[in-house]
C-alpha cells in the first residue's frame, strides 16, 4: 500500500467516537460511508455501545480484529491524542481528525496540536487535521 492509499483507498476504516445518531458529528462519517456505498470494512468504535448504526461496535481500536488502514477520529480534543496513539499502536497508517480545540483556540491548542505532530513524526501515522 502506497503512502497515501490508506487515505484514498482504505480497505478498512475505524470510526473512533462513532455515534448511533447519524446527525451528530460522531455519526456523520459512518452514515456517509454506509449511505454512499463504501465497500470496505467499517468498524465503529464506541466503548458504550455494542452496535452503532446497525454495525457491531468495538470498545477500542485495539479490540478490532484484523488490519485497519484509516481511522476517522471524532472525539473531543482532549481525547484525540489518546485515540491517535491507539491507532498508531494498532498499525493504522492514516487518520482524519474531526475535532476542534487546537491551534484555533490559542496557545494551549497550538501546544496540543504540536503533540499530534510529534506523534506523527514518531510513529509515521499520517494525520489529516485538525484545522484543515
Task: Tell me the strand percentage band.
Answer: 15-25%
| Distance between the first and last residues' Cα | 24 Å
Q: Determine the mean pLDDT.
A: 94
Q: What oligomeric arrangement do these chains adopt?
A: single chain
Number of strands: 7
**Low-confidence regions:** none
The strand order across the widest sheet is 2-1-5-6-7
Helix content: 25-40%
Indicate the structural class. alpha/beta
Total DSSP helices:
4
The arrangement of helices and strands along the chain is HEHEEEEHEHE
| Main sheet makeup | 5 strands, parallel
Morphology: globular
Q: Radius of gyration, rounded?
A: 14 Å
Describe the structure.
- This protein has 4 helices and 7 strands, in the order H-E-H-E-E-E-E-H-E-H-E.
- It has 132 residues and is an alpha/beta fold.
- The strands form 2 sheets. A 5-stranded parallel β-sheet has the order 2-1-5-6-7, sandwiched between helices. Strands 3-4 form a two-stranded antiparallel ribbon.
- Strand 5, helix 3 and strand 6 form a beta-alpha-beta unit.
- Helix 3 packs parallel to helix 4.
- The longest helix is centred in the C-terminal third of the chain and has 17 residues, at 107-123.
Amino acid at each position: 500500500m502506497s503512502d497515501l492509499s490508506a487515505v484514498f483507498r482504505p480497505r478498512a476504516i475505524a470510526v473512533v467516537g462513532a455515534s448511533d445518531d447519524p446527525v451528530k458529528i460522531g455519526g456523520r462519517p459512518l452514515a456517509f460511508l454506509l449511505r454512499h456505498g463504501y465497500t470496505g470494512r467499517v468498524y465503529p468504535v464506541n466503548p458504550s455501545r455494542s452496535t452503532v448504526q446497525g454495525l457491531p461496535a468495538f470498545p477500542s481500536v485495539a479490540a478490532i480484529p484484523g488490519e485497519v488502514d484509516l481511522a476517522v477520529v471524532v472525539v473531543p480534543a482532549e481525547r484525540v491524542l489518546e485515540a491517535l496513539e491507539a491507532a498508531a499502536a494498532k498499525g493504522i497508517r492514516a487518520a482524519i481528525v474531526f475535532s476542534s480545540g487546537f491551534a484555533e483556540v490559542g496557545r494551549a491548542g497550538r501546544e496540543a496540536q504540536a503533540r499530534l505532530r510529534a506523534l506523527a513524526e514518531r510513529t509515521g501515522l499520517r494525520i489529516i487535521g485538525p484545522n484543515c
